[in-house]
Write a structure and sequence with these properties.
By secondary structure, the protein is α+β, with helices and mostly antiparallel strands. It folds into 2 domains: 3-111; 118-204, no CATH class. It is built from 10 helices and 7 strands. The chain has helices spanning 3-8, 13-16, 32-41, 45-57, 61-74, 82-88, 106-135, 142-150, 154-163, 196-204; strands at 27-30, 77-81, 101-105, 165-168, 171-176, 181-186, 189-195. Strands 4-5-6-7 form a 4-stranded antiparallel sheet. α7 crosses α8 and α7 (106-135) crosses α9.
Length: 207
């Protein structure tokens, strides 16, 4: 472990974030600038400014993330990709120039998980339609595909919202966040795009 992180092992998250109880936070965004703020909160920045900045500039964010994820888990927080979080938290804008992750307390994490399935579950339905029509025609219906492969598949849905795409067999789905469309490609060929309203209408119509 780097010496910078080793110094922090002697301090609690409450000290680092200048609070008496971490549970007062629903969520906390975290990046390299946060690390600098933590050392300032602990009154340790001035004496180690050059060393801290050098460590940050060396692009050690993955090491930093792993260290803090362990600390946050001990306090009942879960890690969430910021692209996924931006899809669920109104007003949050992703950072483009610096790696950022989000830590959410367990209660709020579960709330957003439910919201994710409610607002974006149509994506899984669209994937079931494409799979039935273009990838796995041996299924008797799109509903059967959905039931066996996609229904309540939060891991798959979170990957789509986090990375913007999902691959299965030779199929690829790409999410257009601005237009609210899910586009399907088989190999390199574009097949179709889906909106929430269109997909839900198809599933309401069993025929």
């Amino acid at each position: 472990m780097n010496r910078i992180l080793h110094i922090l092992k002697n301090h609690s998250l409450e000290e680092m974030f200048y609070t008496e109880n971490m549970k007062e936070f629903q969520w906390i965004w975290f990046n390299n600038e946060t690390l600098k703020d933590i050392f300032i909160n602990l009154s340790l920045y001035d004496e180690r400014e050059e060393e801290i900045n050098k460590y940050i500039q060396e692009e050690n964010f993955k090491e930093i993330e792993e260290f803090f994820t362990g600390l946050f888990k001990e306090k009942g927080f879960e890690l969430m990709d910021q692209n996924l979080f931006a899809s669920l938290e109104e007003g949050y804008k992703t950072t483009k120039d610096i790696d950022t992750v989000i830590y959410l307390n367990d209660k709020y994490y579960k709330k957003l998980h439910i919201k994710c399935m409610k607002e974006y579950g149509w994506i899984l339905m669209a994937m079931a339609i494409d799979t039935y029509k273009n990838l796995a025609s041996h299924y008797e219906s799109k509903e059967k595909v959905y039931e066996e492969m996609y229904e309540d598949n939060s891991r798959m849905l979170e990957e789509v919202l986090s990375t913007g795409e999902y691959k299965h067999m030779i199929g690829t789905w790409k999410l257009d966040r601005e237009c609210g469309l899910l586009r399907f490609y088989k190999g390199k060929k574009f097949y179709n795009s889906w909106s929430k309203e269109e997909v839900e209408a198809i599933f309401r119509n069993k025929h």
